[in-house]
Design goal:
single chain, Carbamate kinase, 9-stranded mixed β-sheet, two-stranded antiparallel ribbon, 37% helix
């Protein structure tokens, strides 16, 4: 029996690149969709938010001179491309999915409505939320926190390219310290790279736990759902997860 009934899986766009410098690695998408299929088989209701940094980063473009609002909307469109790619891979494996977009594009996706999303989840469909919150200046981290609370998810599981949260980049620093558990305040105080401050604050205010784990290690999603300790848990001090 799974530890959680309903989860929000947050995937960074960069995690879909694999060893490439840009775009989507078909092998990574196939691996992720296989893990999601295994999770669905446990009876877990799954919603997903994907970033778009593997295709376009709005903040980086803004810093390069592009108007911020325009850059952010372009970043939202990148998340739609990733969502459609994941949907295609999941449905080829027999997993029923729906893409719900915060920006209306009826030829490609359903428009996001909270009650519609909940009905899809109750019917066993995997929901992929696209286009962030639909508003500039908000990241897909914030979108993940917001959607998780709206659908009453039990936890946010954030898949990254490293094993969890460190005090500094473990790829560049061999002496980086790994944390197996943190409080929201720890993350905000120390500026740790978990999610942006708005997203962390939303989770803290609503006592929504976050687990940061390595999406590249096969089977980690199912391990987490079965209650195994994987990655880094971010929660209140009183949380007994």
């Amino acid at each position: 029996m799974a530890k959680y009934k309903r989860i929000l899986l947050k995937l960074s766009g960069e995690s879909l690149m694999g060893d490439q410098n840009y775009g989507i690695d078909p092998k990574i998408i196939d691996t992720v969709s296989s893990e999601i299929k295994d999770a669905v088989a446990l009876g877990v209701e799954i919603a997903i938010v994907i970033g778009g940094g593997n295709i376009f980063r709005g903040l980086a473009a803004s810093e390069g001179g592009m108007e911020r609002v325009t850059a952010d909307y372009m970043g939202m469109l990148a998340t739609v491309m990733n969502a459609l790619s994941l949907q295609d891979s999941l449905e080829k494996k027999g997993v029923y999915t729906r893409v719900l977009s915060a920006i209306e594009m009826k030829e490609l996706a359903e428009s996001y409505i909270k009650r519609r999303a909940e009905r899809h989840l109750e019917k066993g469909r995997v929901i992929i939320f696209a286009a962030g919150t639909g508003n500039p200046y908000f990241t897909t981290d914030t979108a993940a926190s917001l959607r998780a609370m709206e659908i009453k998810a039990d936890v946010i599981m954030k898949g990254t390219k490293v094993d969890g949260v460190y005090d500094k980049d473990p790829v560049k620093n061999k002496d980086a310290k790994f944390y197996d558990r943190l409080t929201y305040f720890d993350v905000l105080r120390d500026g740790l790279a978990v999610m942006d401050t708005t997203a962390i604050s939303l989770c803290m205010d609503n006592k929504l736990p976050i687990i940061v784990f390595n999406i590249k290690d096969g089977g980690n999603i199912v391990r987490l759902l079965k209650g195994e300790k994987v990655g880094t848990l971010v929660a209140s001090e009183s949380y007994e997860g």
